[in-house]
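Following up on my earlier thread - several people asked me to post the actual chain instead of describing it. Fair enough. Here it is, all 358 residues.
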Amino acid sequence: MKTSLLIFIGLLASMMLFAQTPLEQNTTIINGYEHKIEGVDFSYHSSIPIAKESMLIRATDGTSTMEWKTSPAPAKPETEFISFVWLAGVGSSPGKASFDVAVNGQNRFTFWTDGSDEWLLKAGDGSSLWFKKDMIDQHGDRFGFMFLTIPVKNLKAGMPLKVKVSGGKFNKTSWYMTFKFPLKNGMNFKALPAISEINGKKYQLGVAGILHFGEPAKAKVFIDNQLIKDTVVNFGYNYVKVRLPEVKQKALVDYRLEVAGQNWTGKLELNPVREWRVNFVQHSHTDIGYTRSQTEILAEHLRYIDFALDYCDNTDNYPDASKFRWTCEASWAVDEYLKSRPESQIQRLKKTSGRRQD
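Reply from S.P.:
Thanks for posting it. Predicted structure:
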């Protein structure tokens, strides 16, 4: 298997999936979205934080379509198959509907917005379309990578594909998105305005997103030739936390990523982190009846006092300024507590009520 596309970025006929997936075949991964031909632009979230611009179609009246070009197929392919990969979203929350996929003007596949996390469609010529979710959002819609895998014998060497997706006529707002996010090689860091101290040494916090297409592999990250992270990257998007050197003045550092014998390099600007004093203050607000009636909410307010007493006990040995405080803002809950709780709890409340917050 040859899967050669790796991206390092900051902050890259039908049957169910019991058959061989594209990653288990002798295939080469190629960027599946190069540029738009036609379609409605839409900005939305995806499974990759920096990928937000997309094209959107819906299964309304059967006329909603999008089309784009892929990167060219290799001029001299070395594998039996080529897999064109792009970032996609499938909106099943409005209901089940179908979408048709055409390649170079020929209808090849039909998929459904049925809420599946993963599916594989196969055509008679050995081509396949595979979707695997990386994320489910708050609406229950899926986001992940789409793999269009085609036998080399059916491709024109050095030429891109035209991929067109059309929504069916279902009078539903069920949708499909292709994100305009070319899978290109590159690497970047994001330095955060925060310092952590580990074993007496201070580091600036940083994050990196790694897109890796292939088998799990070791990744090493260097800053000015010093190893700062040694980790394993899996297929897809990898969110990696890194420790960067603390600087007292603006500095430009070199970074390098090593994965599977390949290297990517670049520069990162580090800026001094401003020191802040942050005070955490316990806050509550009582509004009886706002969320539920008094008879329903009373039990919760009594439990709140129980929990507050536990926290007070757990912090008895803390410095006075660090001990837990709780304000009973309404006498109604306290009055009911005194009527219903065992004598031992009442005594705990009386004992702790002397803890004041100046």
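The longest strand covers residues 201-212. That should answer part of your original question.
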